[in-house]
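lol so apparently i was supposed to do this last week
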Amino acid sequence: MPVKIAPSILASDFANLQKEIEMINVSEADYIHVDIMDGVFVPNISFGIPVTEAVNKHAKKPLDVHLMIVNPDQYLEAFKNAGAAIISVHYEACTHLHRTLQGIKQLGCKAGVAINPHTSVELLKDVIMDIDLVCIMSVNPGFGGQKFIENTYAKVKRLKEIIIEKGAETEIEIDGGVNENNAPLLRSAGADVLVAGSFVFSSADPLDTIKKLKKID
Ligand SMILES: O=C(CO)[C@@H](O)[C@H](O)COP(=O)(O)O
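anyway here it is w/ 5-O-phosphono-D-xylulose bound
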């Protein structure tokens, strides 16, 4: 499978969100990455359900919704109804992760688990068969434009081993500080999906930047 690219609209121009979504629609991107921050789980507030719905109204690519919130179970259905195709919850925010994953799947969405930089991939072993996508955070969640954490490569490699050992079909997504320099290394370590915010939206030609990321294979 070719690498998948998920531009993060957190770095887009919110005053021209429709235009930004239309750019992603005509690009080679695979998903639209939607970052939901509650100001509790992470020290920042982004946007919520109505904005996700508005994005979905114009989107022609699946919405990859990353919930950086406490009590995610309370909002799963609302995000499904707002258009989410993939819902990722944080390992650190779930007391009953297995139950939460079943809840996401019952809604008809793909179930993702995001892990903070300090969280070991080993903790996912017993639940890996139930996870469609693991989002390895390569920055501390909460803000776009941060520096990529180098330890991520080792985490990707180890998670890939676990997935193979267990015979799972889980995809590995990397989120935070992704750019043209680390993308090829992440890909060879085993990454399937690359989230890119600032690198895409701060570039002179976002369409071309997405194309370049897509070509790293
Ligand atoms: O979830 C997050 C941040 O918490 C990410 O999705 C960022 O939005 C990625 O942005 P860049 O690091 O690529 O600017």
